[in-house]
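@channel sequence for tomorrow's demo:
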Amino acid sequence: MKIRTLAELDGAISTDLAWRKKELSVFRNQVHGAESMVQRALLRGAVALLYAHWEGFVKNSAHAYLSYLSRQNLTWGQLRPEIAGLTMRASLTEFGQTYRSRFHAEVVRQMREGASELARIPDTRDAVRTMANLNYERLEDILVSIGCKCDGYEKYRDMIDEQLLASRNRIAHGEQDFIALTDWVDLRTEILSIMDDIYRQISNAAALKEYRI
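structure tokens (generated this afternoon):
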């Protein structure tokens, strides 16, 4: 993914969000029109599908933002601490795992003197780690790492962790887990609302250059 302009960033995220909403709407119509036993089966699939779109959108939108940032020719000194920390994640991990003093000294030198050097912002999909288990804590870590806020989603922690993720895991592992239609409708509405807000956060952060200190 190569994103160089604000228009390309907005297009990438909005397009990704749009097809997900469309597919969920198709599934919603099928669920609402189904008879009781079929509806129960469809609702199990609906939970798994909603989680898939939740994880996929968060990963793709954060990846798109990093792809955009990586092409803005930003220096270490220009980046807000959260994003600077993301760019140094690999080095800091190795720093804690190696006893090589030369490597330790190089990392410290980079932190002290590298403000004017171009930052190597990771733009691969591996830079955004959902661990195939996107709970609230993992969501918070991803959003903070790209300089966005997660505080506003704290009230949805139990919904994300229990109603969405835990239910999806039970269904994926073949357990006899069922969700009521009204609960799925509420869950779908709230998750899509969070996805919309993440889209707005990233778009605003890019437009207002909030990635800079």
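heads up for whoever presents: The chain is about 65% helix and 0% strand.
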